[in-house]
């Protein structure tokens, strides 16, 4: 049986809030071990070297600190300790047997040996037992080359077998986990990392172990796919080839791949990723560890939507002739735009630019500069109501950023979610909330559409009224919130798009203002807006929003920069439309001229995540066809229409970024807004929204299908299969015929 | 002796001394995944009856409310008893629901403990202990007797009339009265093939033979008669100072 955190301290995510007073303190953000590393440091000797580690560290960590590598399968520093593989055996003085270093707390003064004959023999024995039931199928196993078992057997494996079991090796049937995870359960070594991940981090309590001893299996017992937006991570966690990636199956070997560290753009978290490419193709996307952002996880859209980069791409400029698009050269296309601009007679604010979900910062700055130079302030965003100035304004950063920062979420002891379902808007952040919910007595409440968030919450209602009640201090949660040390309000980005957005922002701003001694302090800013779109924080940072006057002007010339979510009716019939982007999605259909640009894996550009953390993406592969980098397209166009922009290379453009906001070139850090400015920002919201009346329209979640939110994921085959399997609940066609019909749903 | 073997067998056995990977696969004895069947699927409703519900509530009340999932084993047992001796998927789901725990955690428990039968069993569940002490005292014979007497079924099978299911089990903790079988909840100990048959026949007739040692022993006392405690033990006060007598 497993020792699962979830079974100890919290009830199931579906059963709402049974309170357990946990012994862990909220400050314990360490993923070291089950116990919190607090208090004194201790000193011990590993292989004759003295090391000092925090009390409560596992012995394996002390050994690591001393520079001794300990082989392991089940231990993972972000998961609970299971201690069931026994690969990490070390010798400890005065202990009669070798001890499992992952499950043993480091003790002061103990003498540990990691490199003695006894240790080797013990590990060899463990390895022999693990291999006894492990199939010898490395040549056809997708894990080959990055398999812990393979690697460690090079060191500890025996070169001949003593396995003479007449009954044969253990055979376990494969499980069907959906379109993302491929299973080959014969290879499983029962380390239970996947089970611990699913239960602790992802919040899918359906995965577990059945049976016992040699017959123990990993699975769901009943036939059931693993419905989680974090499931891809178990592929990384599995130390052997039992769980591999289905879309990537037999596509490449790790040593053929070129690794490029970059930033994800499928949501506004800005997860750090490693793009593995071969030639001009992205083969897979893996997480890159960044404790401040995504720890070690990424969501399934981040991981698997990249196959959309191969389909529906714009590879050559297109000019509409009659009702057809005709391929054109760049020169022709740019001239056609210049002519279209003149012919449309657009002047001043009649020239509109709309920035979509995947627009990078450089391109937005260049486009804004161009449009401004043409005398227009009409800069729209690709969201409902995006052609109006946003309610929260863009003058104060803390009004639209996630001020508490992502790691800061773990410090919060009361969280109010307003109009957001973080599970779909920022899945990685959601698992942090879950982590905190499991280990600390945090109180969570939700105003908005009910959703399965993977943790329990108090449901307060779904409209402005619920928020007004909360602000007025009605209800049990409002009391708990009052007494919280680090209260946190997470405001969904959809709130500013909502008809009642104004009145709700007003309520919130006043509430935060009133409780500023706990909500806005030099060390804690509990008013946090969760953006859901990668380009949005940067768009606000550079001021890519319309002026009041521009928002009422009917545009005659529209430049869509990666804008694919807009309502076609919002574009006037007679306007001249340019689409600049990488996919032939909705925006391209509306266009008179399409300009092929690069996708996020093909350009080195700046991205700002929801915390305001500026990160640099890197180009992993080259762009298809004659597609060009986005800002260069805008720069070239500016030349053709006779208002050249003053930067000729990307460095000059980044100088321009610095001029706009120095934060845009300070990479990998967040900059907190000072208390005074933050409060001034709240005042601004309050005064601009004063007197707004709520009409009571219920809040709806902005993302109904997590798997398809942008042109890349809509073009992705894998995401389409996920949509069928998880959103529509159909059999997605990958598994054998006839399966799934009898699926037992508990 | 080798001449009796088919010709082709010899070279093969020799070749097998170098194992490449031609070993047959070994499936586990019990299925550790659930397959929907007409008699066992989540659509079949299960609920505790009034009496068991009362007992269940009583069991749950022994644990602090946030740890009520600790009651999972007793409740599964209660469910198994109510459900004709086996734990169907509906029983597990019901218990999970009752205790507010994820169903998978209940499946883990139910598959871990072999005493939860996840397939239907006969009216009388005959468990024959074949662990070493019993084996030394002739449990192999007892097992054979049981199987033959019940119409030649194999361990793990149920008789055609659905009256008996026979399984082999590990030590039941009654080694001092080996060999032994368990029928339902009762131990029948100190068995011989003859007494085994008598017991089974009684069950067949719908009677319930007296549990315990079948050899005339009361418990596990020396069958050759007592070697100690042969006299009446002295009572309180005896051999004491007069004032304490
Ligand atoms: S499937 Fe992989 S991760 Fe899960 S228990 Fe088996 S070996 Fe470990
Ligand atoms: S790593 Fe220590 S027992 Fe598995
Ligand atoms: S060996 Fe049979 S009861 Fe112990």
From TrEMBL, chain A:
**What CDD domains does the record point to?**
fer2, MopB_Res-Cmplx1_Nad11
**Domain 2Fe-2S ferredoxin-type, first and last residues per copy:** 40-118
Per the database record, which ranges form the 4Fe-4S His(Cys)3-ligated-type domain?
Answer: 118-157
The UniProt keywords, alphabetically, are: 4Fe-4S, Iron, Iron-sulfur, Metal-binding, NAD, Translocase
Q: Which GO terms describe its molecular function?
A: 4 iron, 4 sulfur cluster binding; metal ion binding; NADH dehydrogenase (ubiquinone) activity; oxidoreductase activity, acting on NAD(P)H
Please state every residue range assigned to the domain named 4Fe-4S Mo/W bis-MGD-type: 257-313
> What domain of life is recorded for the organism?
Eukaryota
Q: Which GO terms describe its cellular component?
A: membrane
What cofactor does this chain's UniProt record say it requires?
Answer: [2Fe-2S] cluster; [4Fe-4S] cluster
As given in the record, the signal peptide range reads: none
Biological process terms from the Gene Ontology for this record are: ATP synthesis coupled electron transport
The record's annotation in Pfam families points to: Fer2_4, Fer4_NDSU1, Fer4_Nqo3, Molybdopterin, NADH-G_4Fe-4S_3, NADH_dhqG_C
Task: Please report which protein family the annotation says this sequence is part of.
Answer: Belongs to the complex I 75 kDa subunit family.
Protein name in UniProt: NADH-ubiquinone oxidoreductase 78 kDa subunit, mitochondrial
Organism listed in the record: Hypholoma sublateritium (strain FD-334 SS-4)
Q: Which classification does the entry list for the species?
A: Eukaryota, Fungi, Dikarya, Basidiomycota, Agaricomycotina
From TrEMBL, chain B:
Q: Which InterPro entries match?
A: NuoE-like (IPR002023), NuoE_dom (IPR042128), NuoE_N (IPR041921), Thioredoxin-like_sf (IPR036249)
Which GO terms of type biological process are on file?
mitochondrial electron transport, NADH to ubiquinone
Q: Which cofactor does the UniProt annotation name?
A: [2Fe-2S] cluster
Key words, A-Z: 2Fe-2S, Iron, Iron-sulfur, Metal-binding, NAD, Translocase
What Gene Ontology molecular function terms does this protein carry? 2 iron, 2 sulfur cluster binding; metal ion binding; NADH dehydrogenase (ubiquinone) activity; oxidoreductase activity
Q: Where are the compositionally biased (Polar residues) regions?
A: 215-230
Positions of the UniProt region annotated as Disordered:
204-245
On whether rRNA-binding is a keyword of this UniProt record, the answer is: no
Which SUPFAM superfamilies does its entry note? Thioredoxin-like
Residues the record lists as binding [2Fe-2S] cluster? 129, 134, 171, 175
Cofactor binding summary note: Binds 1 [2Fe-2S] cluster.
Source domain of life? Eukaryota
- The UniProt record lists the keyword Cytoplasm: no
Q: What is this protein called?
A: Uncharacterized protein
Q: Which organism is it from?
A: Hypholoma sublateritium (strain FD-334 SS-4)
């Amino acid at each position: 049986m497993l020792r699962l955190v979830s079974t100890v301290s919290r009830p199931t995510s579906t059963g709402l809030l049974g309170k357990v007073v946990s012994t862990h303190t909220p400050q314990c953000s360490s993923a070291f071990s089950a116990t919190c590393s607090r208090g004194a440091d201790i000193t011990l000797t590993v292989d004759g070297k003295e090391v000092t580690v925090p009390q409560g560290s596992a012995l394996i960590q002390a050994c690591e600190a001393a520079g001794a590598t300990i082989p392991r399968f089940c231990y993972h520093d972000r998961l609970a300790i299971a201690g069931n593989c026994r690969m990490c055996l070390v010798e400890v003085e005065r202990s009669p047997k070798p001890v499992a270093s992952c499950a043993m707390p480091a003790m002061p003064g103990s003498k540990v040996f990691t490199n003695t004959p006894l240790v080797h023999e013990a590990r060899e024995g463990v390895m022999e037992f693990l291999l006894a039931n492990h199939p010898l199928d490395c040549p056809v196993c997708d894990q080959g080359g990055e398999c812990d078992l393979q690697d460690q057997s090079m060191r500890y494996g025996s070169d001949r077998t003593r396995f003479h079991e007449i009954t044969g090796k253990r055979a376990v049937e494969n499980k069907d986990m959906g379109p993302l995870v491929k299973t080959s359960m014969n290879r499983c070594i029962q380390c239970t990392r996947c089970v611990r991940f699913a239960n602790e981090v992802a919040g899918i309590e359906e995965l577990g172990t059945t049976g016992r001893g040699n017959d123990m299996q990993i699975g769901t017992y009943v036939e059931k796919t693993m419905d989680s937006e974090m499931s891809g991570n178990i592929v990384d966690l599995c130390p052997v080839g039992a769980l591999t990636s289905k879309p990537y199956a037999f596509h490449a070997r790790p040593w053929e791949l070129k690794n490029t560290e970059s930033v994800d753009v499928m949501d506004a978290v800005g997860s750090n990723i490693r793009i593995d490419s071969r030639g001009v193709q992205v083969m897979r996307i893996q997480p890159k560890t960044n404790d401040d952002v995504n720890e070690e996880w990424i969501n399934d859209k981040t991981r698997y939507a990249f196959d959309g980069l191969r389909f529906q791409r714009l590879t050559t400029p297109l000019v509409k002739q009659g009702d057809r698009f005709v391929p054109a050269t760049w020169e022709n296309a740019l001239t056609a735009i210049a002519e279209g601009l003149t012919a449309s007679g657009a002047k001043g604010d009649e020239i509109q630019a709309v920035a979509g979900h995947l627009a990078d910062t450089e391109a937005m700055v260049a486009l804004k500069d161009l449009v401004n130079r043409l005398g227009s302030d009409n800069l729209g965003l690709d969201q409902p109501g995006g052609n109006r100035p946003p309610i929260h304004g863009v003058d104060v950063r803390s009004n639209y950023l996630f001020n508490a920062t992502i790691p800061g979420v773990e410090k919060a002891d009361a969280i109010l979610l307003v109009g957001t379902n973080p599970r779909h808007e920022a899945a990685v952040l959601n698992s942090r909330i879950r982590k905190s919910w499991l280990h600390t007595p945090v109180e969570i409440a939700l105003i908005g559409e009910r959703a399965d968030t993977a943790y329990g919450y108090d449901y307060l209602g779904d409209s402005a009224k619920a928020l007004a009640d909360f602000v007025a201090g009605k209800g049990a949660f409002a009391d708990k919130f009052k007494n919280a040390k680090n209260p946190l309000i997470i405001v969904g980005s959809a709130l500013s798009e909502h008809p009642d957005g104004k009145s709700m922002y007003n309520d919130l701003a006043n509430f935060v203002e009133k409780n500023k001694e706990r909500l806005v302090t030099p060390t804690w800013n509990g008013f946090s807006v969760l953006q859901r779109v990668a380009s949005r924080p940067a768009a606000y940072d550079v001021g890519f929003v319309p002026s009041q006057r521009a928002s009422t002007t009917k545009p005659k010339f529209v430049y869509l920069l990666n804008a694919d979510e807009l309502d076609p009716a919002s574009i006037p019939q007679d306007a001249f439309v340019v689409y600049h982007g990488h996919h032939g999605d909705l925006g391209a259909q509306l266009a008179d001229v399409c300009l092929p640009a690069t996708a996020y894996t093909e350009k080195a550009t700046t991205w700002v995540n929801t915390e305001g953390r500026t990160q640099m993406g890197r180009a992993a592969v080259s762009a298809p066809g004659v597609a060009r980098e986005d800002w260069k397209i805008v720069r070239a166009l500016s030349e053709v229409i006779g208002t050249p922009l003053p930067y000729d290379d990307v460095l000059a453009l980044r100088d321009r970024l610095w001029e706009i906001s120095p934060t845009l070139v300070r990479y990998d850090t967040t900059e907190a807004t000072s208390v005074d400015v933050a409060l001034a920002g709240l005042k601004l919201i309050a005064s601009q929204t004063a007197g707004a009346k709520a009409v009571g329209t219920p809040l709806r979640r902005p993302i109904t299908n997590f798997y398809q939110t942008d042109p890349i994921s809509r073009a992705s085959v894998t995401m389409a299969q996920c949509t069928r399997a998880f959103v529509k609940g159909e059999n997605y066609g990958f598994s054998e015929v006839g399966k799934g019909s009898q699926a037992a749903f508990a | 002796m080798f001449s009796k073997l088919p010709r082709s067998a010899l070279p093969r056995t020799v070749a097998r001394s170098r194992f490449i990977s031609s070993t047959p696969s070994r499936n586990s004895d019990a299925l550790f995944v659930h397959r929907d069947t007409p008699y066992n699927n989540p659509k079949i409703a299960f609920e505790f009856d009034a009496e068991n519900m009362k007992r269940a509530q009583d069991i749950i009340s022994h644990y602090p409310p946030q740890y009520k999932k600790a009651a999972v084993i007793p409740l599964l047992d209660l469910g198994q008893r109510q459900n004709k001796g086996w734990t169907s998927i509906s029983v597990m789901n019901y218990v999970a629901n009752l205790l507010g725990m994820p169903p998978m955690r209940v499946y883990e428990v139910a598959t871990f403990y072999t005493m939860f039968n996840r397939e239907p069993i006969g009216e009388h569940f005959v468990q024959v202990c074949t662990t070493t002490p019993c084996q030394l005292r002739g449990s192999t014979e007892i097992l054979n007797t049981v199987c033959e007497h019940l119409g030649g079924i194999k361990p793990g099978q149920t008789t055609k009339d659905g009256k008996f299911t026979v399984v082999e089990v590990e030590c039941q903790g009654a080694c001092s009265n080996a060999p032994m079988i368990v029928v339902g909840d009762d131990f029948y100990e100190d068995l011989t093939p003859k007494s085994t048959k008598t017991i089974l026949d009684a069950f067949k007739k719908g009677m319930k033979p007296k549990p315990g040692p079948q050899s005339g022993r009361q418990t596990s006392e020396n069958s050759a008669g007592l070697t100690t405690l042969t006299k009446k033990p002295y009572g309180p006060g005896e051999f004491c100072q007069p004032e304490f007598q």
